[in-house]
Amino acid sequence: MENERISTKTIEATQSAGHLHKNKPEETSLEAYQKSLETIFAEIGSSKEGLDIRTVVTRQAEYGFNELETKERDSVLKLFVETFKDAMVMVLLAVAAIQMVMGHAAESLIIFAVLMINAIVSVIQTRKAEGSLDALKSLSAPMAKVRRAGARLTIPARELVVGDIVSLDAGDYVPADGRLVEAGSLKVDEGMLTGESLPADKEVKDINGAVPIGDRFNMVYSGTLTVYGRGEFVVTGIANDTEIGKVANLLENALSKQTPLQKNLEHFSKKLGAGILVLSGFIFGIQFIRMMGEGTTDMGTGMLSAFMFAVAVAVAAIPEALQSIVTIVLSIGTKKMAKQNAIIRKLPAVETLGSTSIIATDKTGTLTQNKMTIVDHYLANGQSGTFNDQPRTWSFDEQRLMQIAVLANDASINTGGQELGDPTEVAMVAFSNKINQPFGELRAAYPREAELPFDSERKLMSTVHTIDGERLLLTKGGPDVVFGRSTKILIDGKVLPLTKELLGKIKEQNEHFSDRALRVLAFAYRPMERNEALDFNVEHDLILVGLMAMIDPPREAVYAAVEDAKKAGIKTVMITGDHKTTARAIARDIGIADAEDLALTGQELDNLSDRELDGILERVSVYARVSPENKIRIVRAWQKKGHVTAMTGDGVNDAPALKQADIGIAMGSGTDVAKEAAAMVLTDDNFVSIISAVGVGRNVYDNIKKAIAYLFSGNLGAIIAIIAALLMDWVNPFTALQLLFINLVNDSIPAIALGMEKGEPDVMTRKPRNPNEGIFSGDTLVSVIYRGVLIGAAVILSQYIGRGFSDEMSVAMAFSTLIIARTLQTFPARSNSQTAIGAGLFANKYVLYAVVFCSTLYAVTLLPAVRGIFSIPADFGLVQFGMAAGLALAAVALMEATKLIINRVRN
After folding, report:
1. Mean pLDDT of the region 402-419
2. Is the dihedral of CA 841, 843, 847, 848 positive or negative?
3. What transmembrane ranges does the database entry give (predicted)?
4. Which terminus in the chain has less CB density within 10 A, N or C?
5. 480 is an active site residue
């Protein structure tokens, strides 16, 4: 079922890799890697001698230079203006304007200053998020070696055109996409496009049928790195028609997602803004009707009073410091995540992690160690398993196997532990050291006398050494090739004929290793005559010694992390450029995939319609040999189902999907392009760190909800007091300056302190929250209303008592009760279910610091030189303070007492 092609569909959104540049004379359905070289040269009007200068100039004038083109960005001014489209911001702008007209310049300037700071921070964050395309441009090779009209030239890579013949040597970056014309042992690191850790072997051969990028051995791609050998290719794609260009197009079209918190706050902001306008209009209407009924002669004064009530409601309802507080709490989360090796680049990602329900992860380096490791071996006598590192006497067969593995090998490990060379060869050298057979000693004892380097056509490497007085050819390579060139076999130190039965056993073991997704190499040797010349003809009549099997093994901690993700209700999906068999074996081993789960290749995914993919999506745990378009499609499919999706990656090919995902997670060892497109970077490239960061993210969201609930409980109390004063025809209980002081200064510190709360015990055992869940879902709304009503009732009673002295005293007592109650409310705001004592009074020392700080702030408002600013009369003394503080304490005590009663009823 996994390999069954369900349907056929045409992908039209983006050009496929290797697609010829638009200046070729004829358009065909085949791509460059599927065509013969003769066809390509004919279509693009070129030859192995290259283009003449006139043709180059003409093509540059008509089709442009070899550099990525991107859309024009929004100006800073436009981004700045857009920050003022928020509903709450618009209401505050209106309030500030009214305050200015009424002569309250201080209040107006304070509001404007807050809005300006928030706008500047927003613009800076937006600009930071636009660096991925700049990083992509930086990957372009600066220079290129070309042949034009038969002459060799070195030119700026931006001057290349389709049809140019370009030369490559080890260490060169590929400057454009092209079809190989020559390849001498050419290896290219294409990990940035394919995700594979091993360099790709390149050959000048035709390919029949459609294959993914990682299997296009006759093509090279812009931005990749030549690591071995040399080659020459004809340019078939430049600028945005390259694979890198295609990634740039995907990046430009990938949608930057709002986080669940951003969506909820935006939705709530619209409702709150509309509600404030309605409430302010209602208040103004009541005052106007009252004045008309009383026959007020001074309509101007009455209208002013009505305006002031309406303005007070707006100022009281809007938590002016909300955006700053949320930003600070998120920043606190970034510090906690940094300790978990997760560096946050975009603040909202902290909260997004907490609601993540799908993690689409790369395999190599994230789930695995990104280090090829020998895990098994097989000798012709049937011996298998891993060698141990205990001192012992080695058999002749074991010694010969290790001699070939270490001596027919170009890799090394220096004294500083730095590994140099092909990862497969490094694995053998490291293994030799591990089993107390230092590779350096073997090489010193048996120096290399001659060699036949590895190439992708022979799939062999051979070296000549003198061992125990005998001149030997030592050969390692692909099992099928070595089997085909062997006529004898080594068993217990004896050279015997390689019979069909013996060969069958070794082939059977090779298949067994392959079924376990292990990479297998075969090892053989043969004696050489002293004067025998070394050429490719000597790699025959070999004596087969055995096999070595290796793999990039899973990280030890990944097993537990995958299980923790399941407990947290998070599904892990593997998306890799590796082969399907390998990916599926690793996925099943670490618990990502069950036996009944499906695995799809990129081509199989392309053959599914969106409806068909939607039908099997939840059963697919592994995607292999995928393209950048595949990755974006997978992410969007999960998002369409309402899941908050995290995507990991490290290559250029991952960047579009990292940007499309709700949270993109780049590897610290990855490309700058991936990091710029991502919201988070893992410094240790470890999947375990993602799960740890999810726990922090969930805690951060809980704390943001606590902070928001704290702010709105206090604001609701103030609104209730204002409406009560209006209905009872009392003076406005607060001045705008008092409310701004409470909202911007006093309440900010406790709200930030709540952001330091430790995680709840069930933080990683509950399911991810619904991204459409409102901020005030569950017990939060009930808690906000209950605490707001208690605070409001205390303030109303305080103002009533103050009216017995004077209107000025009623305002001072109302203000005092409100600020004290809101400060002390920090304790019950720590939890909706536990009391402050039950949660540990000293568990969050920052709450204690915040209460002390705010109490000191309030004391400052009582100083003789400051009282007038906050409308506190000179005769406000200990008696009035005691009554105001007592009422505030009573309200907070009721909040805590109610929790105790509810807990007893529930238990």
Report:
1. 91
2. positive
3. 83-102, 108-124, 272-292, 304-330, 707-728, 775-797, 846-866, 878-902
4. C
5. no
The per-residue DSSP string of 460-519 comes to EEEEEEEETTEEEEEEEE-HHHHHHHEEEEEETTEEEE--HHHHHHHHHHHHHHHHTT-E
Residue appearing with tokens 């800073």: 76
Question: Considering the chain, what is the average pLDDT of its residues?
Answer: 84
Q: What's residue 489's pLDDT?
A: 97
Identify whether the C-beta of residue 188 lies closer than 8 Å to the C-beta of residue 200: yes
Q: Are 725 and 299 in contact (CB under 8 A)?
A: no
- The span from the CA of 615 to the CA of 107, in Å, is 58
d(CA 785, CA 707): 15
Enter the pTM of the model: 0.70
Packing angle, helices 322-338 and 687-727, rounded to 10:
160
Q: Are 702 and 369 in contact, with CB atoms under 8 Å apart?
A: no
Q: How far apart are CA 616 and CA 335, in angstroms?
A: 39
DSSP readout, 418-462?
-EES-HHHHHHHHHHHHTT--HHHHHHHS---EEEEEETTTTEEE
Mean pLDDT, range 682-689, rounded to an integer: 86
Least Cα distance to 328 among 808, 772, 703 occurs for: 703
Strands 225-237 and 373-379: unpaired
Q: Nearest Cα to 49, choosing from 142, 146, 168?
A: 146
For residues 3 and 558, which has the higher predicted lDDT (pLDDT)? Answer: 558
Distance separating alpha carbons of residues 229 and 455, to the nearest angstrom: 9
Instruction: Read off the tokens for 513.
Output: 């290793």
pLDDT band at residue 396 under the 50/70/90 scheme:
very high
Check residues 825 and 5 and name the one with the higher pLDDT. 825
Cβ contact 581:525 at 8 Å: no
Catalytically annotated residue among 164, 189, 362, 397: 362
Average pLDDT score over residue span 195-221: 85
Contacts of 459 (CB under 8 A, 6+ apart): 477, 478, 481
Residue 542 contacts residue 486 (beta carbons within 8 Å)? yes
Helix, strand, coil percentages in the chain from 3-state DSSP, rounded to 5: 50, 15, 35
Among 170, 132, 133, 176, CA closest to 156: 176
Question: Where do we find the tokens 């005769």?
Answer: 875
Residue 778, pLDDT score? 74
Tell me: the pLDDT tens digits for 847-891?
999 999 999 999 999 999 999 989 999 999 999 999 999 999 999
Measured CA to CA, the distance from residue 703 to residue 848 in angstroms comes to 16
Which own/partner contact pairs does 286-295 have at CB distance under 8 Å and 24+ positions apart?
Answer: 286/726, 286/727, 287/726, 290/729
C-alpha–C-alpha distance, residues 486 and 543, integer Å: 6
Supply the pLDDT for residue 302: 58
Tokens encoding 18: 């290797």
What is the predicted pLDDT for the residue at 686?
84
Residue partners of 215: CB distance under 8 A and separation at least 6: 207, 625
Percent of the chain with pLDDT over 70: 89
Pair 503, 483: CB distance under 8 Å: yes
Helix (H, G, I), strand (E, B) or coil at 250: helix
Q: What is the largest CA-CA distance in the chain?
A: 126
The per-residue pLDDT for 681 is 87
